[in-house]
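User: Here's a protein and a ligand (uric acid). What would the complex look like?
Assistant: Let me lay out the input and then the predicted complex.
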Amino acid sequence: MSDEVGYLSAARYGKDLVRVCRVTRQGDTHHVVEYTARVLLEGDIETSYTKADNSVVVATDTVKNTIYILSKTSPHVHNPPAFALHIALHFTSTYPHIKKCYVDLQMHKWSRIQVAGKAHGWAFERNGDEKGVVEACADSSAGQDKTTAYVKVGLKDLLVLKTAGSSFTNFHRDQYTTLQEVDDRLFSTSVDLKYDVQLPPNVPLTIANIGKVDKFVDFQKTYEKTRQATLEVFATDESASVQATMYKTAQRVLKESPAIKNVTYAYPNKHYIPVNLTPFKLDNGLGREGGAEVFHPVADPSGYITATITRKDSRSSKL
Ligand SMILES: O=c1[nH]c(=O)c2[nH]c(=O)[nH]c2[nH]1
């Protein structure tokens, strides 16, 4: 009789924080992409936990090597969602007992340095903390030929600030409320967004078909349009609240990109508090049209506003 009192109800393993930078050279024009990757595997791996049976373990070191190898050999390495899908499908198609592969990529931005107004061919700068993010999963549990997948794409740590066009009034008031209404405030957040991509329904999910998947979705264009729409609505909306601006942003994103099924935003409300300068006989414009000029940026606490906005009817899209 076993004296075990617990059973293995979930198990997933792999390599995290694999950093890789890939350079592609076309004459004097070089392309660079830098990833931090996490790749986790699921499947018939139970005995590695319960019976110390390592024969079912694709070593995490092998997982790491594979990320380097695919960074060299994959035609999709410069297209993060397609590359993530390639990694995921590699593991589910190479190892019959590996049924699911979860890939998380963070992309660190390298932009070309402008020299005398011209983009340099092989010199780059890191501009800001912004990172692209991709989450992909391939699932061959129902059989290799019935492999399914999902791909989520987004960005995080994109800091934005506007100095007009933001108010916050008419909120609920009770005995716990001290916040004053403001019809003019600073609005700053760190954009965190992720959207679920609609993959083509009739294309079998194989490594050979990743090009077709990309043609259907257009990962790069969808990403650029979503990033631009997010920035434009942030800049131009007469914001009644973070919530209302977020919702408007998502409506535009879903309108512009039929391949997006839903989009999730998380906006920390990075508060900027006007400083009271009246003790120093200085007018900080408190309550005046046009607003204050000196603020105290508050690191914490911050508001934290999230929402997922889902397409009502996928039939209304091109899909
Ligand atoms: O846009 C905002 N939404 C809130 O929910 C909130 N709460 C708060 O104190 N300030 C703000 N601002």
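Summary: The radius of gyration is 24 Å.
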